Amino acid sequence: MWEIITRKTPYEGVAVTEIKARVLGNHDRPDISQIPPSCPDQLRQLMFMCWRTDPQKRPSFSSIVDMLELVSV
Question: Coil, helix or strand for 43?
């Protein structure tokens, strides 16, 4: 979702093994300052919800679909 919103590649120039270590070990996420102000708040919030480290706290796919249907662009 970050890539779609920003139209950029996260972690550009960083080796895949380094990305894995940063995301899995440090719970690192792409740079949120790159998200344009024009991004609907619903999309921003959904992305953050999907980034939760505890899988049980992430939204289900059907919840994601429901939330996307409410996004006004």
Answer: helix
What is the set of domains in the chain, with CATH numbers? 2-70 (1.10.510.10)
Question: Are the beta carbons of 19 and 27 closer than 8 angstroms?
Answer: no
Token pair belonging to 72: 């006004």
The two counts, helices (H) then strands (E), for the chain are 5, 0
Query: Residue 5: is its pLDDT beyond 80?
Result: yes
Read off the pLDDT of each residue in 51-71 and give the average, rounded to a whole number.
Answer: 94
Token look-up 């505890």 returns 54
Contact 53, 27 (CB under 8 A): yes
What pLDDT score does 62 carry? 96
In the chain the beta strands, taken as DSSP E runs, fall at none
- Tell whether pTM > 0.70: yes
